[in-house]
């Protein structure tokens, strides 16, 4: 039996989602975990407006992993479009990483995609993150050979070097 509970974010969760995501990806707090991007990007990962925009997308959901005391342990965005569900912005509290939260959220997001008729799960990962790519490959994802440009909007961070996103996919059958 898992100690985690799955929930779907509402607008009321916006402030704590911003805190969680930014602490997982940027700044000194992110360096406590292995998923930090602080060495690659300056600035924030997301702001309240960005979270509200994500929550407003039809059929999309920000899935939450809550602990025994309802504390927010992690989150993952799932956006079904046609036969694919796009997964993005997996964030796990840096002090609680390597305890199964990420795997719990990946499984939940893939199931969310299946419930919406998706047969493929898709995500993008910064190409210079071999440890993260390896993690997703262990979860059944494979590199498609496709790339996407890194977003240029400073609301999502300011690259310290040129960055490219690799496209990873996994069949959901």
TrEMBL record:
InterPro entries: Acyl_CoA_acyltransferase (IPR016181), Bact_Acetyltransf (IPR050832), GNAT_dom (IPR000182). Keywords: Acyltransferase, Transferase. Gene3D superfamilies: 3.40.630.30. The keyword Acyltransferase applies. Residues 4-173 form the N-acetyltransferase domain. It holds the Pfam family Acetyltransf_1. It comes from the Bacteria. PROSITE patterns: GNAT. GO terms for molecular function: acyltransferase activity, transferring groups other than amino-acyl groups. This is GCN5 family acetyltransferase. It comes from Hymenobacter sedentarius.
